[in-house]
Amino acid sequence: MSALPAQPPLLRVCGLHVRIEGSHILQGVDLTVPASGVTALLGRNGVGKTTTVKAILGLVPRTGEIRLDGRDITASPTHEIIRSGIGYVPEDRGVFKALTVAENLRLAHRRGVEPRYGFVHELFPELKQRATQAAGTLSGGQQQMLATGRALLNDNRLLVVDEPTQGLAPRVVTEVAEAMARAAQEVPVLLVEQNLALVRRVAHRAVVVDAGRVVHTGPAADLLDDPGRTRELLGVAKGPAQRFAAPATQREDR
Ligand SMILES: Nc1ncnc2c1ncn2[C@@H]1O[C@H](COP(=O)(O)OP(=O)(O)OP(=O)(O)O)[C@@H](O)[C@H]1O
Fold first, then answer.
1. N or C, where is the chain less crowded by C-beta within 10 Å?
2. pLDDT tens column, 83-106
3. If you ran DSSP here, which 8-state letter would residue 60 be given?
4. Which residue, by CA, sits nearest to atom 28 of ligand 1?
5. 33-44 pLDDT, tens per residue?
6. 194 CA: nearest ligand 1 atom
7. How far apart are CA 178 and CA 184, in angstroms?
């Protein structure tokens, strides 16, 4: 995946600090997300990737500055940040397991915005076929599709997706990758991901976090084509396309 031409950033994060229960988790994160393509947020386990996206969404107390399209959203509560056009797919997927697929989608729909059912069903035909099925009975991959579909239903300006392939079997990872690439044609994506093959397939830019700070920013392909740098920043022992987390025992394999 080649780098996109320079453009003004859609999201700008400056000097983000998060302190939780005495731990200084984010120590001045600076990053930008351009107005198109996929920006991958990478890093070893526990370096602060999820905390970064939660801080952007106002889900954890933080200091610093966050601007969406130039507008300062730092002081806004989470529901306003979401309403300003950020679709969030959390690590735990956040679907309502007792509700059907159709009900999950309906609940995600923001008033005043035309729901994009056509786009969501084109991307994930199974969501249409399984409309009356309880979300809790879907496979891990299907739940990920539902969670992503919920975020894509509204005409968002940015999609923030946290580890969509965690625990999924390789075949399902491929499906998620296809969907993410297709979604990114419509809306820019900030993607937390540990599967480097998927990052290589979909990401234009890579932002690497280490110990609560951004330590590298650049075209994703440049980083992944440099095994030494990839190993240094991400701790990958072998090839750059290798998955560098989630041992097989954690997989749902469905
Ligand atoms: N609510 C919390 N209370 C205390 N410590 C926390 C809390 N949330 C996160 N942390 C700690 O902050 C650090 C960063 O966590 P975070 O989940 O952001 O990392 P990550 O890079 O997303 O990791 P992973 O790849 O394993 O998901 C970790 O050491 C974690 O234990």
1. C
2. 999 999 998 888 999 999 999 999
3. S
4. 46
5. 999 999 999 999
6. 25
7. 10
Q: Return the structure tokens found at 169.
A: 């079997």
Ligand 1 is surrounded, with C-beta below 6 A, by: 20-21, 23, 25, 43, 45-51
Burial of residue 242 (number of CB atoms within 10 Å: 0-12, 13-18, 19+): middle
Provide the token pair at 105: 């989608």
Is 0.80 surpassed by the pTM of this model? yes
Q: Are 84 and 66 in contact (CB under 8 A)?
A: no
CB distance 203 to 191 below 8 Å: yes
Cβ 1 vs Cβ 200: under 8 Å: yes
Which residues sit opposite 216 in a β-bridge? 208
**Residues 154/83, Cβ–Cβ less than 8 Å:** no
Q: How far is the CA of 5 from the centre of ligand 1 (A)?
A: 33
**Do 39 and 189 contact (CB within 8 A), yes or no?**
yes
